[in-house]
Sequence to fold (209 residues):
Amino acid sequence: MSRPTRRSYHSAIRQRQAEETRRRIAEAARRLLLTKGYAGTTIEAVARKAGVAPQTVYAVFHSKRGILTDLMDRATFGPAYRDLVEQALNTEEPSARLRFAARIARQVHDSYRAELDLLRGAGVVAPELAALERERERRRFEAQKPMIDYLVQAGRLRPDLNAARAREILWALTGRELYRMLVVERDWDSDRYEEWLADLLVSALINPR
Fold:
């Protein structure tokens, strides 16, 4: 039985140390945002609170926008999100797997809404939030490709759709705008939104055969 090499062992230690440094910086920035606001949260202030050099903050995050992106990712794509994705990947029936897309969308939007409210309360300016939203949507579109690929491979995609069009429909229906309109503006609770979206996705994408 082969043993891990000394190099891989030290590499794993460095990786854990790097992640711990990243987490400490992000938490320091979040605390400063809550107390000092966006304008008062400078890279230098974050470095002091995290106990690292400003150069370290720049090396890890590059800018305040990079820190904001990390905070949103930690809030939105945390353990609950990863657990739902794993459950979806372990579900073989295509309609049941697609319904997980609604559950994941609900989890993402609920978490994103809470963190976004915090950032707005901290005075994060609109252009910064818009940039975060564009990047988030790009990554969300990329992450949804395996779902459509699975429907195609299982032979369950509606015959009037190709993979590209189906992916666009999935991306649009699971977007934050529909969530905002129904949950925020019309006071739907998240359970009702998830159930409605799941039914809609199955109807829009699955071949009923």
Q: What stands out?
A: The radius of gyration is 20 Å.
